[in-house]
Amino acid sequence: MRLFVSVDLDGLGEGVAEAQAPFADLPGLNPTDPESAHVTMKFLGDGPEGGHDLDALSTAIESAVETADVGPFDARFEGLGVFPSLEYISVVWLGVETGSTELTTLHEALEAETTALGYDAESHEFTPHVTLARMDHAAAKETVQEAVEETHPEVGTLRVEELRLTESTLTPDGPEYETAERFPL
After folding, report:
1. 82: domain range?
2. From the first residue on, what is the mean pLDDT of each consecutive set of 10 residues in the chain (185 residues)?
3. Helix/strand number for the chain, H first, E second
């Protein structure tokens, strides 16, 4: 069972689809489902050795929310970026204009709690973002570079009131997500 902790962009799917428009039908680029758009707060994967202990994980996420001491807040989603760089693109993403501080505080608390349970620590600095597409090969690299540098989509503002523990099932048509549990802020 693949799990991650997320902030879901409920109600912003249309705006996410508009942000993806410059990348429509480009070779080598696989867009994500705009109706499933989310900020991955902590990827848990298949779990530490022995799999997930869902009770312990739930307790850890609750503790992280309490430790972070972040109440409901507004997050504004706009702008584009890529990982790891414009020269070598693997992911095209939508940025977080406001709310980054709160998301980062929550991520750091989640990181501390979940690594204590045996989950892998992140290997890179946390950058709050929404994945718009993944690049398999560089056939459209220049088009993607131009779009990232020249467009600035403004998707909208979301009231963040909870974190979700999300189960991801990989299918031939892409991942399917199901909320396993909700954690109010």
Report:
1. 2-184
2. 95 97 93 95 87 93 98 98 95 97 98 95 95 93 94 96 94 88 98
3. 4, 9
CA–CA distances in Å: residue 182 to residues 6, 33, 158:
10, 21, 17
Total tally of structural domains belonging to the chain: 1
Q: Convert the pLDDT of each residue in 56-92 to its tens digit.
A: 999 999 999 999 999 999 999 999 999 999 999 999 9
Quote the tokens at residue 18: 């508009």
pTM: 0.94
Which ranges of the chain does DSSP label H, i.e. alpha helix? Answer: 13-20, 54-68, 100-116, 141-150
Beta bridge partner(s), residue 133: 31, 92
Coil vs helix vs strand at 113: helix
Query: CATH number of the domain that 60 lies in?
Result: 3.90.1140.10
Q: Are 151 and 99 in contact (CB under 8 A)?
A: no
